[in-house]
Amino acid sequence: xxxxxxxxxxxxxxxxxxxxxxxxxxxxxxxxxxxxxxxxxxxxxxxxxxxxxxxxxxxxxxxxxxxxxxxxxxxxxxxxxxxxxxxxxxxxxxxxxxxxxxxxxxxxxxxxxxxxxxxxxxxxxxxxxxxxxxxxxxx
Length: 139
Known about the structure:
Layout (H helix, E strand, L loop, with lengths): L1 H9 L3 H45 L5 H14 L6 E4 L10 E9 L16 E9 L8
Antiparallel strand pairs: 1-2, 2-3
């Protein structure tokens, strides 16, 4: 009987040590998973904003202000700031109706850790290409 008690007492703090070692590792893994999920959400939001801007740009009589308003609405719904919007809307004509809208944002704008993990060097960008609808062009 004494032998069983002695073994039980020698392992008394083993669980505490195991938790102390594994808790930081598990916490870092959880933070990493959240950062990756947030990066995917950011990419999806940028794609959605480019789609909305492209739809607005393809309408007859659309202006860059319309494109920017559509992109601002999509990015603002996600609470994102510091993004850039580019478009060739002013360069399109009836002979060249193809247009594009590009939305880009720095990765650190959408992460919890900011540029702590080097996110400031990575740019997330999406370009949507479409054709301008023209009421005068035959279908």
